[in-house]
């Protein structure tokens, strides 16, 4: 707070800063951001740590919700990166060949995920404005962690490829995650 950032000859003041005697000072503790948005001078701002946007990065473990499936892939919304909730909505795709590490040619998307399932996945490729993040569940620790049966009950995993409804005892196929303690949230 009150750190001298630069001269007004070098930058235009943005949010979280103030002017004094030709210099721009920080008005709060946080990160300095410089944005050059086609202006002749960059805009300098200071944002609190909680205001910076966390983005899914290659190799990150993400928690996502399945929104739709088809024979080639499952579409998801990424909800968390690690244990940090995301402010913005990011879309992801889990392709059929990225569901599991073995017998990739035998994977059937509808036997792995259903809309509404909560899935742990790993980012394998970054998305952009037009495309989705590419995700994989091809590790034992990745896959469905929460699923609800047609009866509406939260299902219980009974193997790496099946979950069971505690109410009706009906079994449904899923790519079940072997959840590790570090991925569980209290």
From TrEMBL:
Gene Ontology CC, one term: cytoplasm
Protein name per the record: Exosome complex component CSL4
Assembly with partners or alone: Component of the RNA exosome core complex (Exo-9), composed of EXOSC1, EXOSC2, EXOSC3, EXOSC4, EXOSC5, EXOSC6, EXOSC7, EXOSC8 and EXOSC9; within the complex interacts with EXOSC6. The catalytically inactive RNA exosome core complex (Exo-9) associates with the catalytic subunit EXOSC10/RRP6. Exo-9 may associate with DIS3 to form the nucleolar exosome complex, or DIS3L to form the cytoplasmic exosome complex. Exo-9 is formed by a hexameric base ring consisting of the heterodimers EXOSC4-EXOSC9, EXOSC5-EXOSC8 and EXOSC6-EXOSC7, and a cap ring consisting of EXOSC1, EXOSC2 and EXOSC3.
GO biological process: rRNA processing
Family: Belongs to the CSL4 family.
The organism of origin for this protein: Myripristis murdjan
Domain S1 motif per the UniProt entry, residue ranges: 57-138
Keyword Phosphoprotein: yes
UniProt keywords, alphabetically: Cytoplasm, Exosome, Nucleus, Phosphoprotein, RNA-binding, rRNA processing
Subcellular location: Cytoplasm; Nucleus, Nucleolus
Top-level taxon of origin: Eukaryota
Keyword field contains NADP: no
An MF annotation (GO) of this entry: RNA binding
